[in-house]
Amino acid sequence: MPGPSESQEKRRRLRQKVLGFGETSHQKSYYPTLRRRLRELERLRLLLDHSTDAIFWVEVPSGRIVDLNATARNFLHIAAGEENKVILGDIFPNTAAGLIRNLFAGSSSLEGVDRTVEAIMSSPSGERIPVEMNIGFHQEDNAVYAMIVARNITGRKRVEDALRRSEERLKLALEAANDGMWDFYPQTGVIYYSPRWFSILGYSPDDLPHTYRTWTSLIHPDDRPFVEEQIWESIQNAEPFVLEYRMRSAEGDWLWILSRGKCVAWDEEGHPTRMVGTHSDITERKEVEQTLRQLATVVEQAAEDIIIVNTEGIIAYVNPAFERITGYTREEAVGQTPAFLKSGKHDRAFYQDLWDTIIRGDVWTGRIINRRKDGSLIEEDTTISPVYDRQGRITAYVSLKRDVTDQVQMEVQLRQAQKMEAVGQLAGGVAHDFNNLLQVIQGYGDMALMYLQAGDRVRRYVEEIMKATGRASTLVRQLLTFSRRELFQPENLNFNDVIADLIKMLRRVIGEHIELEFHPAADLRMVYADRGQVEQIVMNLCVNSRDAMPEGGRITIETGSVRFTGENIHLHPRADEGEYVFVSVSDTGIGIPPEVQDRIFEPFFTTKEIGAGTGLGLATVYAITRRHEGFIDLESRPGSGAAFRIFFPADHGTVHRPENPKPFTPNEGKGTILVAEDEEQVRELAVMILEKAGYEVIAAGDGQEAIDLFNQHMGRIDLVLLDVVMPRKSGKAAFEAMKEKRPDVRVLFSTGYSFNTLNLNDASGGRVQMISKPYSPSELLRRVQTMLKTEPDRSASSPAR
Which of 164, 310, 400, 615 is deepest in the core (most CB within 10 A)? Predict the structure, then answer.
């Protein structure tokens, strides 16, 4: 084993000397005290060596290290006895040595001269650690020494660095979030604000007292109670709060503020002592939210159905209008593609063009026919637009659809009415000329039959001519009805009575192979209608049903009434609010194909074989119904029959039927009759019929000639037979001229047009009447006789009236 070191040997000798080997009596009293002091010094040395701080004893001003503890020795790798080889500047370069000199040089006295600084301590191996140095001075004899205690603060520095970085990140985050900060002390009512807090509201720190009362005074009065309640509730529950409220800015505007906060300190009794939080301006966000809420309300309440689909074509949203119009719920639609609405009315190319258009970023507009949940079709004017994000990428497509089904139906009906009006104009003109021809044929035919015996072979020929004339007359009457130029004589009618009187004839018309049922409704309201035209409607519909059941079947006629209100009037675009009476004619026939239903009311349109129909039956039904301000419903499917329902406006009143005229006896005519007719053959026929009956006749070829002849023979003319349409002066103009001379003049108008077309507001009760062409000789004579028996209104005999 190695021998004791030199320093250890010195200590041993000193210890022997101190312990009293050969000591004197004085030494015996002194050495115990010295030994006690040495033990104290030994303990102090142990304490210093075991300290985690590095301790240096340094000579001033040279900076030479005189002594150091074990911690410093180990860090610096300094062996015993080599302390004097190290100077302070090597350990604390540019820090401690200069500091010691400056402190000592600047002090006239060593009392109170000390300093605590931070520095970097370096070892010979290059290790560097941050330390906190505590420096004190001591004077011994004529030398000055500095004692330096260097504490390793590496851990503290790490914490400080982490805290500093955290604070920097927090500062950056607050700056990025544009938030202000507040620090509230509830016990004093003091609030501290960050500069950003003031800038948000537009105030400067000197504008506002830093008090809780001032802060609450800036909150909108409507929001203040709720805000204060929530803050104190947050304190009591020790939970954070998030509030949105309005605050008054320096300019007087109300800004929306988002405030987050939490109580972070309480006193020993549990009272809150500190709250901290943030404060940010969300006014712009609230305005955007308000706009979005308004937009959402508009979308939810829009009458048009709105669909949003993603780029994959999947429905992401539908509004309530979609549910109402299509019948599908939102749950049924979302997640599907719009293909489930397809009606089959559009081909593949139609949808391909639609998708090609919107995928390339363009807006597609057009009309789409879709199918509702109940199977019915719906036509919609559609606009589909792409939706872009901020990068210009398409993220969705929005479809806005307006239901135009009723509008399309009304447009179809309008076009139908316009076509019928155009054809009616033509038909009316043709009927006028044709009636004049029929008048001649029928008139002379009737005259011929008067002179032919029952067994005469020629009579049979004439009778066939008269049958053909009758059919031609019926065809012309249909044309006139269709063109609204037939004689129109409305009265209060009950549908039940009209149909009951018609049943026997209907059974003969439809044949025995078809069953006919009639179900009249009880307490049916009256309608104001032309009886003959109502009969024509029922007859035409029954004939139409008969032709749809060549192998037999059943026709059912029903009557009833219905009231249309705001809830159901949309089902019938042509209906007005109020009560309607209807007659329904349904059959069990072959039905009407959907592609034909839009055309069945067109004049001359027929699905029957050539020669089997004129194509005017349903057109006449349509015209009569519209003339009575009614409308038609049709329900039909191929193979399931058809049902026509005719609606007329209901009317109060009782039935008034014209009395049947008394039988006419020829050759009883007495009086003078002025006949005005521009068609020569018709005029000659009328003159011949009247003269053979015993009347004196004056003939005129136009309206002006009729006026002139009337003025010449005014005193002896008993009746004027006036054609409505004549050259130079019309029948109406001639009548007005005659009435100025003789207000009590009797006039019988002759025309193929409706008496209503004359627009005569005459209340002379029987003195002005009308006969419709073609008329028979007996009908003309009967009407003339009836009018001549009417007593004249003596009070109206003066032109001054």
Answer: 400
In our burial notation (b when 16+ CB lie closer than 10 A, e otherwise), range 429-440 reads eebbebbbbbbb
Ranges of residues in the chain with a pLDDT under 70 are: 1-32, 34, 81, 83-84, 94-114, 170-178, 413-414, 416-432, 474-489, 566-575, 595-617, 652-668, 752-766, 790-801
Residue 98: its pLDDT value, please? 65
Burial of 635 (0-12, 13-18, 19+ CB in 10 A): middle
3-state secondary structure of 788: helix
Over the stretch 579-608, which tens digit does the pLDDT of each residue have? 889 999 988 888 877 766 666 666 555 555
555 closest CA partner among 594, 516, 518, 584: 516
- Tell me if residue 622 falls in helix, strand or coil: helix
Q: Kindly state the tokens that stand for 85.
A: 């080889």
* Distance between CA atoms of residues 504 and 506, nearest Å: 5
Please count the other Cβ atoms lying within 10 Å of the Cβ belonging to residue 709: 18
**Of 448, 503, 447, 440, which Cα lies nearest the Cα of 472?**
440
Distance CA 399, CA 387 (A): 10
Please tell me whether residue 21 adopts helix, strand or coil conformation: coil
DSSP state of 233: H
Indicate the length of the chain as a whole number.
801
Tokens of 395: 């993220």
At 681 the pLDDT is: 85
What are the structure tokens assigned to 359, written together?
């995928």
**If you search the block for the tokens 């079709």, which residue do you land on?**
377
For residue 310, give both structure tokens: 């993603």
Peptide bond preceding 386: is omega within 30 degrees of 0, i.e. cis? no
* Spatial CA neighbour of 322 closest among 331, 313, 314, 311: 331
Q: In terms of DSSP H, where are the helices of 576-722?
A: 594-597, 617-627, 680-692, 703-712
d(CA 547, CA 539): 12
Contact call for residues 754 and 479 (beta carbons, < 8 A): no
The C-alpha R_g of the chain, in whole angstroms, comes to 60
3-state SS string for 761-784:
CCCCCCCEEEEECCCCHHHHHHHH
User: Quick one: DSSP state of residue 61?
Assistant: T
Cβ–Cβ under 8 Å, residues 564 and 577: yes
| Residue 597, Cβ density class (10 Å: 0-12 exposed, 13-18 middle, ≥19 buried) | middle
Task: Quickly tell me which residue has 């008269």 as its tokens.
Answer: 466
**pLDDT recorded at residue 246:** 93
Q: For residue 29, with 0-12 CB atoms within 10 Å meaning exposed, 13-18 middle and 19 or more buried, which class applies? A: exposed
Predicted TM-score (pTM) of the model is: 0.43
Question: Taking Cα atoms as reference points, which of 289, 287, 276, 288 lies closest to residue 179?
Answer: 276
Residue 714 is encoded by which pair of tokens? 């005014």
| Residue 531: closest CA among 575, 485, 489 | 489
**SS3 string of 344-408?**
CCCCHHHHHHHHHHHHCCCCEEEEEEEECCCCCEEEEEEEEEEEECCCCCEEEEEEEEEECHHHH
Answer whether 746's CB lies under 8 Å from 719's CB: yes
Q: Characterize 145-161 residue by residue with b for buried, 16 or more Cβ atoms within 10 angstroms of its Cβ, and e for exposed.
A: bbbbbbbbeeeeeeeee
Which residues have a Cβ under 8 Å from the Cβ of 471 and sit 6 or more positions away?
Answer: none
124-165 pLDDT, tens per residue? 777 888 888 888 887 777 788 888 888 888 888 888 888 788
Whole-angstrom distance, CA of residue 290 vs CA of residue 254: 15
Using an 8 Å Cβ cutoff, are 648 and 628 in contact? yes
CA pair distance 622, 631, nearest whole angstrom:
8
The two three-digit tokens of residue 665, written as one number: 């006896």
Which pair of tokens denotes residue 657? Answer: 């039927």
The tokens describing 263, both together, are 């109580």
Q: Which residues contact 33 (CB under 8 A, 6 or more apart)?
A: none
Q: Can you tell me which residue has the tokens 């399931």?
A: 640
